[in-house]
Amino acid sequence: MGLLGILVGLAGLIFFAFRGSSILVLAPIAGLIAAAFSGEPLLASWTQTFMRTAADFVAQFFPLFLLGALFGKLMEDSGSVTSIANYMTVRLGTRRAVLAVVLSGAIVTYGGVSLFVAFFVLAPMGMALFRQAGVPRRLMPAAIALGTSTFTMSAMPGTPAIQNAIPMPFFGTTPFAAPGLGIIASAIMLGFGMWWLKRAETKARLAGEGFGPDDNDGAEEAARDPIIRERASTAREFDPAEIHHSHHAEKTPPIVLAALPIVVVIVVNLLMSFVILPRMNTAFLAEPQWGGTSIAALGGVWSVIVALFAAIVTVIAINFRSVPALRATMTAGANASVLPILSVASLVGFGAIVAALPAFSVVRDWVLSIGGGPLVSLAVATNILAALTGSASGGLTIALDALGPTYMKIAHEIGMDPSLMHRVAVIGSGTLDSLPHNGAVVTLLSVCGVTHKEGYLDIVMTAIVGALIALAAVIVLGTMVGSF
Length: 484
Prior knowledge:
single chain, mainly alpha, 74% helix
């Protein structure tokens, strides 16, 4: 009965979330259904298991959600993202329209700009570029997804994406975990995705297919659609409803100034991870008043927090006079972080209830018994949970909350570097999360004015198949030679 309750609760969560119901309501209900089937006390499951775990997630990661959303909104309203995208367009031209969109997305998201901010800025630019180049509109969502939602989210060393931060407290790693493997995975994702998009573009030109209907871009409707908003809030760290709650600068900054905050994110993140924090005296963290923790558990998150804060100060200093309403921009950015953090925390709370049930031991034993070693079973666990929840961050946190200590124990027993597990877990969470019900996928297609029928196959190839190939390569290489 306990296992049946888990399946019923999960099925209800998926079904109603896909129909646009709030995950804030669905997650505790689904968790209580699972608990009821197992005969567990319902109120205790809600207040002591669900809420405590959700609160711990908020306490640990809200600074990243808040600073990430603030930075993304400031970069948007200052015109910095637009300036970078325009620069790539001019440099690469219409002959390389797809590459221009992909690289623009990669640069801004690797530099810490929130995914949805990139969507709403890159889509109009991509629309104009694809129209001029005669590239089918249906390829634009896949091009944007390749640049924003694949290697810069899960594989590139040092990426400030929340997905890359989640394993750090569990494994005691930094944002630069397994950098060599991350770079190889990034090259595979980018190379395979560009091969597929070039193949699709060539095939479309031979068939005489052009840009397609020249109607509205769908961005305004997507930002105001409540169903899209609910789906999107569990997928990434920015509430799309806040996109239009501020004003953009009339002029975009020069490319050097536009790119400077992104450089700051990367450099400060690197310095904090390998120079500053390792030299600090952090023995005080072991005291009860600081949670009895260590710098190994906190250092990775601290590095990203300081990097994003430094970048925010930089972008404000550069654009202080040009942003029309700085207070409105800051408010919109802060508000944009609230619904996503609470939505993902609710998913994590649901996972905590499930993990606490006696029947979950069957699921855990099945996962750990998967052949191929711990890296394969870890990849399968994160893949499945990210797919079921439609959230890379939610699925990854649920998997590590339930299985992280077990995998750390295994790593110590066999002498495996936790950095390898970090990279496998993050890449694994960024594969099957891009199924049709994923909020980022739904939002991206809507912003581009493309239907699932028209554009989803290309998203599958660039965001799922390429990532799965890269994941397999990392597992094989990591098993053979370890982390590097």
